[in-house]
C-alpha cells in the first residue's frame, strides 16, 4: 500500500507513503489515494481529511516511470475539490510539480516554515497543465507567472503570499491544531455547504478547462523535447537546451 490511514476524533489522516520514489505520483499511488478518499466520503464518522506524507518530501511530482493518465490525475484533483468533507494538506518538506496540484486542490494547506516548492515542469520540457485547474484560481497571477516560468524553488512564506498555502509555521502541527478543532466543532451539513461555496470557482475551472488541459498535457509529454527532458532527469544530467 502507498497510502496509510489513521483516524482520530473525526479526522482521518491519509499519508502518502511511498518513500522509494519520494511519494511520486505513480498510477498506483493515485489510484489508492482516490480509493481512500472515496471511503472518507462515505464514512459518517469522518468530519475532515488531512493529507500528509512520510519522509522529507510531500510529493516529487509525477512518477516518470509509471505515471497515471492525465485523465486519472484530473479526476483525483476533482475528487478532492468536490469531496463533501474538507481536505487539509499538511506539508513538512519538499513539494514539486504535480505534488503542488494535490496541495492546491485541498481546501486548506499548512506547511512547516522549512518546506519548499517548485514548478519544475518547464525544466523537463512540459508545463503545469492539469495542475493549473485547482492552482490558478487560488494563486496570485504574478506569483504563478514567475514560478511557472522559472521553475525556481520558493519558500513556505512565499507560498503563503502566493495563495498556494493557507499558512506556514515553525511547528506545522501546532498551526494545524486550531484549524482541526474548528472542523470538529462544525456540523457535517454546514461543512459540506460551506465547501461548495468556497470551491465553486475552482470547480468552474475544471468544468471549463479540464479537457483542453488534458490534451495539452498529453501533447507536451509526447514531444521530442519532453523525451529529452525526462531522459536527462532520469540520467541526472542537464537537458540539451540548457545554456
Quick overview:
This protein has 243 residues and is of the alpha/beta class. Helices cover 48% and strands 17% of the residues.
Highlighted features:
about 240 residues, alpha/beta, 2-enoyl-CoA Hydratase, Chain A, domain 1, six-stranded mixed sheet, four-stranded mixed sheet
Task: Please provide a written account of the structure.
The termini are far apart. The protein is of the alpha/beta class and 243 residues long. It has one domain (1-171, 187-243): 2-enoyl-CoA Hydratase, Chain A, domain 1 (Alpha-Beta Complex), CATH 3.90.226.10. It has helices at 27-42, 70-82, 98-105, 132-135, 141-150, 156-162, 172-185, 188-221, 224-234; strands spanning 3-8, 11-16, 48-53, 57-59, 87-91, 94-96, 108-112, 116-118, 154-155, 167-169. Helix content is 48%, strand content 17%. It is built from nine helices and ten strands. Helix 1 runs parallel beside helix 2 (70-82) and helix 2 runs antiparallel to helix 8. The radius of gyration is 17 Å and the shape is globular. The strands form two sheets. It has a six-stranded mixed sheet with strand order 1-2-3-5-7-10, with helices on both faces. It has a four-stranded mixed sheet with strand order 4-6-8-9. Strand 1 and strand 2 (11-16) form a beta hairpin.
**Number of strand elements:** 10
Residues in helices, as a percent range: 40-55%
Q: What's the arrangement of strands in the largest beta sheet?
A: 1-2-3-5-7-10
Mean pLDDT: 97
If you compute it from the alpha carbons, what radius of gyration comes out, rounded to the nearest whole angstrom? 17 Å
Query: How much β-strand is present in the residues?
Result: 15-25%
Poorly predicted runs are none
Number of domains: 1
Identify the CATH class: Alpha Beta
Between the first and last Cα atoms, what is the distance in angstroms? 42 Å
Major sheet characteristics: 6 strands, mixed
Under CATH, the topology is which? Answer: 2-enoyl-CoA Hydratase, Chain A, domain 1
CATH homologous superfamily (4th level) name: 2-enoyl-CoA Hydratase, Chain A, domain 1
Structural class: alpha/beta
Order of helices and strands: EEHEEHEEHEEHHEHEHHH
Supply the CATH architecture.
Alpha-Beta Complex
**Total number of helices:** 9
Backbone shape:
globular
